[in-house]
Amino acid sequence: MPAGATLMEWREPNACTRKEFSHGGWIGFVIVLMIPTVGLAISAMNHNFSRGEIILALIFLIIGIVIFLREWSGPGNWVYLKEDCVSRATSRPASRTRYQNIKSCNVSHESYNGIKFSVLKFTLKTGLPASQVEKIVLPEDVNLDRVLHILRDKGVKVVESPLPS
Hints:
The chain is of the alpha+beta class. Helix content is 39%, strand content 30%. The strands form two sheets. It has a four-stranded antiparallel β-sheet, with no helix packed on it.
């Protein structure tokens, strides 16, 4: 197979993102929304309102709300197991991690609001550039055994937790 050939692909369930938001991930969102709000409050206390500051604060506020809505209700990211790497298309260019740079993969089985999924967290070698794939999520309908088989064939040590009963 060619080096960039795709072995498997799937879309991550957004239930994992929702679960992370429900367990404290929303704090970062609140901070992002508070930055323009605090900036406007400081300007109001100093009686130093400029149209530019108001517009800039509203732009940041709107961007924060749009990002939150996209993460909360939008479709999940695409994940690709390629011949030479794991790729996660969260943006352009997609994040990629070569199999040789993954020390191990820890598998856990989770659920949120009745939606079951598996989370694969990668332990990576040190000194790698930013934007590496550190975690991927598999919906219940993706063949987990096949994914783990591919990772093992590529030399990744897989540590699997037992299925919840």
